[in-house]
Amino acid sequence: MRILITNDDGINAPGLEVLTEIASDLAGPHGEVWTVAPAFEQSGVAHSISYSHPTMVARLSDRRYAAEGSPADCVLAAISDIMSSTPPDLVLSGVNRGNNAGENAMYSGTIGGAMEAALQGLPAIALSQYLGPETANLADPFEAARRHGAGLVRHLLDNADWRSDQDFRLFYSVNFPPVPAADVRGTRVAPQGRRQGTGFSVVPYTAPNGRRFMWVSGGAQQASARKGSDVAQNMAGFMSVTPMRADLTCHASLDRLATVLDRETEASEAS
C-alpha cells in the first residue's frame, strides 16, 4: 500500500510522527509512506488553497516534502506533482494536536486535507487527538492515537463505505478521546455535534506602536454537546468516527423550499 500523510500542525509536529508510525504499520514492509506537510503550522485554515500566489515545495529527504501552504495545498502538490506517476492508495491527515469534533471540524486544516483527497477521488481519513485534564500529565499525550490508530484505520478500510455519495466521495473524521490509551472504551460512529454555550471569539490587542491587532480565542473544549454526537462520545472515553462529505447542501430543506418558491413564482407570473 502507498500512503500519503499530511497535517496542519506542520512538518515537525509530534502528531505527524505518530501518524508516520500508524501509516508505516498499515503500509507494511513492502509499502510506501510519503509525507507532504506544511512547512509551518496551518491550524485553522480549513479547506483553503493558495489560489492567488505560488507555493514553494522543498524535498527534505526520500519521500518527505514540506510545502509553504495549507494541508489541501499539500495534497494537491502530492497528487498533481510529487506522486503523479504513482498516486497514493490512501491519504491520512493528522494526527492533530487537539480534537476536530463538533464545530472545530469547520475550521480544521486536518479535515481540509482529507476533504481535498476525497475531492480528488482518493480514500481519506482525518485523525485527531482530543486533549484534556487526563492527557495533560501523560508522557505522550498522543498515547490513545498511537496505540489504537492503526487498528481503527484497518477496520475502516475493511468495513466503511468508500463509494462516492452522489457527486462527492465520503471521507472520515476520527477523534481519539482525551484519556490514556488503556482507558479508551471502544469506538462509536457519531454525527458531528456542537458544543453548547461556547465558540471561537476575538481578543483585541493594542501594540506599543498604537496599531490594533486581535487574537482568535477558542472556546471551552470540555463543554457539553448533544447526546450521541462526536463530542459527547469522546468525552465519554470513546473513539468517534464521523462520515463526512464536501457537500454543504441541506438536502432536507430542498423540496420544501422549492415548493414555496415555485408557488410564489407562479403567483407572480399570474398577476
UniProtKB/TrEMBL annotation:
Catalytic activity, as annotated = a ribonucleoside 5'-phosphate + H2O = a ribonucleoside + phosphate
Q: Does the keyword Cytoplasm apply?
A: yes
Named cofactor requirement(s): a divalent metal cation
Please provide the record's keywords in A-Z order: Cytoplasm, Hydrolase, Metal-binding, Nucleotide-binding
Keyword Metal-binding found: yes
Q: Name one Pfam family in it.
A: SurE
> Per its UniProt entry, what is the enzyme's top EC class, as one word?
hydrolase
Among the GO molecular function terms of this UniProt record, one is: 3'-nucleotidase activity
Entry's localization field: Cytoplasm
Describe how the cofactor binds: Binds 1 divalent metal cation per subunit.
EC number(s) recorded for this UniProt protein: 3.1.3.5
For a divalent metal cation, which residues are the binding ones?
A: D8, D9, S43, N96
Survival protein SurE-like phosphatase/nucleotidase domain residues are 3-196
Give the similarity note: Belongs to the SurE nucleotidase family.
- PANTHER family for this protein: 5'-NUCLEOTIDASE SURE, 5'_3'-NUCLEOTIDASE SURE
Function statement: Nucleotidase that shows phosphatase activity on nucleoside 5'-monophosphates.
Q: Specify the protein name.
A: 5'-nucleotidase SurE
Its ancestry begins with:
Bacteria, Pseudomonadati, Pseudomonadota, Alphaproteobacteria, Rhodobacterales
